Amino acid sequence: EEYKKTAKDLVDYNTVQMLEGEDLKAGKNIWDQNCVVCHMADGGGGIGPNMTDDYYILGGGIKNIFKTISEGGRPGKGMEAWSKKGLRASQIAQVSSYIVTLNGTTPANPKEPEGELWKNNEE
Fold first, then answer.
1. What is the value of pTM for the model shown?
2. pLDDT digits (tens, 9 = 90+) for 63-73
3. Measured on CA atoms in the order 35, 41, 47, 52, is the torsion positive or negative?
């Protein structure tokens, strides 16, 4: 357990947990550098889906968001596997946590909901 505290890149979509504080700030920086091109700065969606509503194509919540970022989305649909583009697991956990915080915010020009209504059954 002590080792896991310092080995943050051992996290995967089964073990990821919502992060706070400095990790959220780091997650926002990753978002700003990599995600805004498709999801817009305020998460309202562009080429990619709106991240502020309760609808998700591949599932919401920290675990599903982590998995989608890490492994990519549906084949041929644009979402890349960021683990293959150089993001470490700890960085994917940070940006996933930041994305969770976008839910319920009000973007300037929100894209219509896509996917299924997500009912969070995660702890």
1. 0.90
2. 999 999 999 98
3. positive
